[in-house]
Specification:
This is Carbohydrate-binding module family 5 protein. One of its GO terms (molecular function) is carbohydrate binding. Keywords: Hydrolase, Signal. One of its GO terms (cellular component) is extracellular region. The chain is α+β, with helices and mostly antiparallel strands and 203 residues long. It contains four helices and 13 strands. The strands form four sheets. Strands 1-5-2-4-3-6 form a six-stranded mixed beta barrel. Strands 10-11-13 form a three-stranded antiparallel beta sheet, with no helix packed on it. A two-stranded antiparallel ribbon has the order 7-8. The chain binds 2-acetamido-2-deoxy-beta-D-glucopyranose. 2-acetamido-2-deoxy-beta-D-glucopyranose binds next to β4.
Length: 203
């Protein structure tokens, strides 16, 4: 009975399909957001990369991070990692890369580094929270890339073997192996990780 109903529905869907124009993209992802911004001192971020307060990086809310298309159980492989966003406040802008998440932020709030927030206000410590900050993705893949990698480079996996010259996508960056490696997380602090050279940002 259930199977019959299902096949009726499926048939119905196909029967109606010629009436629709094929969509160009299956995922509808909002592109511009409004929230509040503040600053923090980064370290090892959720994307698996160590950044400092002088880097132009940003933490998006944990809520948004986990909702991002392609987000899975390993935050380091979240396709939002390395994506560039443009943040605007009272006519001033800064472009920053997403490298972290912020558990205490409301959905569209941002946590910027001190260097980044100074592009928006002269005295961030005095102002505290910036209200009515808008931001949008400026990456080239539309901000909704799948969790499959970047620009044809597959996501790094702990079980894959990589030999000299082979590339992997991890934490928003493309990495190139210098020699045979397996299980060494690109950019991590373990000794084996020196096998990886960071080649480019995924944009
Ligand atoms: C974040 O840190 C990595 C090194 O850990 C560096 O390569 C990258 O350029 C930094 N990102 C930015 C936007 O400065």
């Amino acid at each position: 009975m259930f199977a019959n109903l299902l096949s009726l529905l499926v048939l119905g869907f196909f029967a109606f399909q010629p009436a629709f124009t094929a969509p160009t993209s299956t995922a509808l992802v909002p592109r511009a957001f409004t929230g509040e911004a503040t600053y923090y001192d980064p370290g090892l971020g959720a994307c698996g990369i160590v950044n400092t307060s002088s880097d132009l990086i940003v933490a998006v809310s944990l809520t948004y991070f986990n909702k991002y298309p392609g987000a899975g159980t390993n935050p380091n492989l979240n396709p939002i990692c390395g994506k560039k966003i443009r943040v605007t406040y009272e006519g001033r802008t800064v472009d920053v890369a997403v490298e972290d998440n912020c558990p205490t932020c409301a959905e569209y709030d941002l946590d910027l580094t001190m260097t980044a927030i100074k592009y928006l206000v002269d005295d961030p410590v005095f102002v505290g929270r910036l209200k009515g900050v808008t931001w949008e993705f400026i990456d080239t893949d539309g901000g909704d890339g799948g969790n499959t990698g970047c620009g044809g480079v597959a996501a790094w996996t702990a079980t894959s073997v990589y030999t000299a010259g082979q590339k992997a996508y991890y934490g928003g960056y493309i990495w190139t192996a210098k020699w045979w490696t397996q299980g060494d997380i690109p950019g991590s602090s373990n000794a084996g990780a020196t096998v990886w050279t960071q080649t480019s940002t995924c944009s």
